[in-house]
């Protein structure tokens, strides 16, 4: 019992320390530029959130449902349009994922100090946090993949059926959030069942694995069927179609269609017209060629699929170099504000994270090392080798699917965020584990219980000092003096494809419990200006809300504004402010 208690304390203290450090860095990063960040792809997820809220429509041809459901639940709890709460919730998921990586590394290496170092490399990594803060699927996807991997590792160590089913559940939620993970389950289950076979548990676990796979893909099949009948699209998301077009444009294969097919000739001619102008972005072409790219881009996607299937060697040879170059393709989303809270130390940490990301180039070497360990009989049965093989399988799958499906260099980094924590465990785990084995052979470590406890107290004191510094620095930025200007329009974004306006209102005064706005704008389809009355949700002081506006429809056309939008605030009489009229072009500068 005493031994178990000491073992628990050995692992519990680093976990507490990790939570403090990771939480402190995340708080500092958010306090540096507190506004919730909406990126170019955010609006499509918010559109699905609107469909869920207005029509209860979970199945959509544009985006998968799990992340919009996550936002919808937070809206229901924290207030409609509360995008700040969504961003903060994603930070909480990141801290949880960091702790899961700590447990994962501890299970693999059986060394708390090594697990702490590996998870801390993730927890204070501003490159990862910069993709967690914006309203995108990366924060949720990172947590889901960490949970999935931890469950799979626990299954491999215990061979208990409940961990197998929990792994299946995480996989289902993951690929209903990010479609590129749809084909992982058979590969992952094949690997873990191979380990079960070596331990003579294969027959007992195989029916459960097959049942889990059948259930997962039956749900996916039902989703695709609903998409086909409800949205006239056979598939999970039409984003895969645009990726197909993007790939042939990336490899300059747009002229490899069937020359005897008039439709292929027409599509190739259209694509070449933009390529000659230096434009290879299918989204740009979609906006300027609505007829060709209509119907969920089905025709260009069929054309691209034909090219890839009839030129597999060319496609494979062009994709192979990306497996290596994409590992270090760097781009950061949420940037540190040098003038914000703790701007200077965060900038230093950001630069360190960018340099650290370059070590991903060592991953192919780690794969070769693992294959070498797998080759020799003396090492292939070692638990570390088997468990690291699982992590390598997941990462290789992610890299191969990303390089085969992604067509923009700056997108590789965004997609790699999900399994970058696993890359850290693989690369630095191999390195530090090997060094620790060498150190044990060369030098005898002589430590006493007293020195250990003193060292732990010193580390805890340092963490508390760091947290005090961070919180003291945040106070001035997070507290804004109240003014009599209680509500202002921050920005407006139009999503013309689905007829939505997204308007951000920020409150820097007293709480506003009930209010509304009157919108006035011109459209190409009406002789008179369109007038709309929109109710605003309650907006507490020092918070903001995102309001989704469904514009009117006339026949097949949305009455979207083609002129500046005039916005008139209707506030309760008790809330006075000098400005109640705004005129804005409906686009979001972010």
Helix percentage: 55-70%
The gross shape turns out to be: globular
Structure classification? alpha+beta
The unreliable regions are: 445-455, 465-483
Distance between the termini: 57 Å
Mean pLDDT: 87
What percentage of the residues does DSSP assign to strands (E)?
5-15%
Protein name: Glycosyltransferase RgtA/B/C/D-like domain-containing protein
Keywords: Membrane, Transmembrane, Transmembrane helix
Transmembrane segments: 12-31, 61-78, 85-107, 113-132, 139-156, 168-193, 205-225, 355-376, 388-407, 413-435, 456-473
Organism: Dictyobacter aurantiacus
Give a written overview of the molecule.
- The structure is a single chain.
- The model is unreliable at 445-455 and 465-483 (pLDDT under 50).
- The chain is built from 22 helices and 9 strands.
- The chain has 2 domains: 2-229 and 329-442, no CATH class; 487-584, Interleukin-17 receptor A/B, fibronectin-III-like domain 2 (Immunoglobulin-like, Sandwich).
- The chain has 590 residues and is an alpha+beta fold.
- It has helices at residues 2-32, 42-55, 66-78, 83-109, 112-123, 126-132, 138-158, 161-175, 184-198, 202-231, 239-250, 262-275, 282-288, 294-310, 312-325, 343-357, 363-375, 377-380, 383-405, 409-416, 420-442, 449-478, and strands spanning 487-495, 500-507, 515-521, 530-536, 543-550, 553-554, 557-558, 565-570, 581-584.
- Helix 19 (383-405) runs antiparallel to helix 21.
